[in-house]
Design brief:
The protein is an alpha/beta fold. The protein has one domain. Helices cover about 35% and strands about 20% of the residues. It contains nine helices and twelve strands. The chain has a five-stranded mixed β-sheet, sandwiched between helices. A four-stranded parallel β-sheet has the order 2-12-10-11, sandwiched between helices. Helix 2 packs parallel to helix 7. The chain starts with a strand and ends with a helix.
Length: about 270
């Protein structure tokens, strides 16, 4: 099976209905009552926003193949996902400590020691069968066709179906491994009180995965500016003064996004 980007909707519901739906969400008090932009290359900012603690954490190399594989497992097990590079080493280690994780799974070339204090680090061998050993579930491989489709593919993960996303343009390194320990599956954390999350195809995979791992809905919009497309406005209408998490630096800032939503709504109302 191959995943491609979602097409523009051929028809939209009335903006009044979409606005009412967006604003009717009951969101936990810890989320700001305004649009918030997260530029989150390492995944640590979204991990901190969505997770107060976690027994498990997944740390993936920055390449597409490990990111997609790690995101698949993170959403299914409801674990935070962090992106490792030599530059983010300290940031990642500090976030693991903040979360209080006792079990860390590394995917791809990640420079973490076999143990960090009381935390056990497990190396993922990169095979489909390994996911079954880790979770006791049989995963189905789904190919993501192009880099531009990565964010949509991760946003589509439902947290219930064991799907392993793979990059159609990049191979995952595979190796033999001894018996793998269990990687516990947590319950979703949002308690049906998660904020609305929006992202463009340029958003960071780890941030999108963390929102989905938490249980929040992620809407992928073609442009960060809600004035640019009907689909973008439909996703964000009514959210200028409501909890809205925007993933990626394309959104610029929360206040700017709030103003853009208001302007897009005003322009839509003026249309005949």
């Amino acid at each position: 099976m191959t995943v491609t980007g979602a097409p523009e909707p051929s028809a939209a519901r009335p903006l009044t209905e979409l606005r009412a739906d967006n604003r009717s969400r009951h969101v936990a008090d810890r989320f700001p009552e305004r649009p918030t932009v997260l530029d989150d290359p390492s995944g640590t900012a979204s991990s901190e926003l969505f997770f107060s603690s976690s027994v498990t954490v997944i740390v993936a190399a920055a390449e597409a193949a490990p990111q997609l594989r790690a995101a698949s497992l993170a959403v299914f097990t409801h674990a935070p996902l962090l992106t490792y590079t030599p530059e983010t080493h300290t940031e990642v280690v500090n976030e693991i400590a903040r979360l209080g994780a006792s079990r860390v799974l590394t995917v791809g070339q990640v420079g973490l020691a076999a143990s960090v204090g009381e935390t056990t680090v497990i190396r993922d061998p990169g095979t489909l069968s390994a996911l079954g050993e880790l979770t006791a579930h049989q995963f189905t491989e789904v190919v993501v066709a192009e880099p531009a489709d990565m964010v949509q593919a991760v946003a589509n993960l439902d947290g219930v179906t064991p799907v392993a996303l793979t990059a159609g343009w990049e191979e995952m390194t595979r190796e033999q491994a001894a018996d793998l320990p269990a990687f516990p599956i947590a319950s979703r954390r949002d308690a049906q009180q998660g904020p609305l999350v929006v992202a463009t195809p340029a958003a960071q995979v780890a941030a999108v995965a963390n929102a989905r791992s938490f249980g929040a809905d992620v809407r992928v919009v073609p442009d960060a500016d809600p004035r640019a497309t009907e689909r973008g406005l439909a996703a964000m209408v009514g959210m200028a003064d409501r909890p809205l998490i925007a993933l990626g630096d394309e959104f610029v800032s929360g206040p700017a996004l709030s103003r853009a939503i208001q302007e897009a709504e005003a322009a839509a109302q003026e249309k005949p």
